[in-house]
Write a structure and sequence with these properties.
By secondary structure, this protein is an all-alpha fold. The chain has one domain (about 1-260). The protein has helices spanning about 1-25, 30-50, 60-100, 105-130, 135-150, 180-185, 195-205, 215-230, 235-250.
């Protein structure tokens, strides 16, 4: 089984890299193409992770339990991994610019999504068939945090974590970042206690976004969206991330913010 997983993982990585390169060059950014790529990257990554521990699930009932747990794990980890993979892509953009390499945003983004979901899928399998009891000390808190981030309010209790295969809201203009709004909101009475986990994660991410054009624009648009709508569902935040990606799309490949288009689509 494992001998077949390596070629599958390589094929997935190459395919996602090529898909991401197409997204980088596409004008405008195709929402259906981006959404589909994220679904494939996340689901295939989760499946690969589970297959790495497949030998511990021998009966049909065990395999069904793994499949169900894998879907639950994918559901609760989808948005946190989407956000963190964007962060990985922003760091890659900054490093590529620093050493003079061509800028690749979505190839890195999609491969990061698949890789992190592979880790999450393996983690789900470990929860059902742990290699050592200590794995619970890491995995239970990790999935608990992911769950609090993925379910902000009742609107998020849906089967799919991402229903934004098309966007109806207008793409906001590209703006410049001002100040971290997330850490300032920590402890506000308008937020339920579990939402402070999301605020803390968003605030720490904001502070570590590198000064590269695509990354700074995505960060600034999300900052503006949060200030406009400080209390929102996770699904609203998913849509806001997509809108930020669209707003920043013209800035992929800019060597500096001064060289970028002044504004995105109205």
């Amino acid at each position: 089984m494992r001998s077949a997983i390596s070629p599958a993982a390589a094929a997935l990585g190459l395919g996602l890299g090529a898909w991401g390169a197409w997204l980088d060059r596409a004008q405008p950014l195709p929402q259906a193409g981006l959404w589909t790529a994220l679904q494939l990257a996340s689901l295939c990554g989760a499946l690969l992770g589970a297959l790495l521990w497949r030998r511990r699930f021998e009966t049909p009932a065990a395999i069904l339990s793994l499949a169900f747990a894998l879907l639950v794990g994918w559901r609760v980890s989808y948005f946190p991994i989407m956000v963190f993979s964007g962060h990985v892509a922003s760091i890659a953009e900054w490093l590529e610019l620093a050493v003079g390499l061509p800028v690749l945003v979505y190839p890195v983004f999609l491969v990061a999504v698949a890789t992190l979901h592979t880790v999450a899928g393996l983690g789900v399998a470990f929860l059902l068939r742990p290699p050592h009891p200590l794995v619970y000390a890491v995995l239970v808190p990790a999935f608990a945090v992911a769950t609090t981030v993925s379910f902000s309010n009742a609107h998020d209790f849906a089967l799919l974590p991402d229903r934004a295969w098309r966007l109806t809201a207008p793409v906001p203009p590209a703006v410049e970042p001002r100040a971290n709004p997330y850490l300032a909101a920590l402890g506000s009475p308008v937020y339920r206690p579990h939402l402070n986990v999301m605020l803390l994660a968003a605030g720490l991410t904001y502070e570590t976004i590198p000064p590269s054009p695509w990354a700074q624009t995505v960060m600034a648009v999300l900052e503006h969206a949060f200030n406009e709508n400080p209390v929102a569902s996770t699904q609203d935040r998913v849509v806001e991330h997509y809108l930020a990606y669209h707003s920043a799309h013209d800035r992929i490949g800019c060597r500096a913010l001064a060289e970028c288009p002044a504004a995105g689509a109205p």
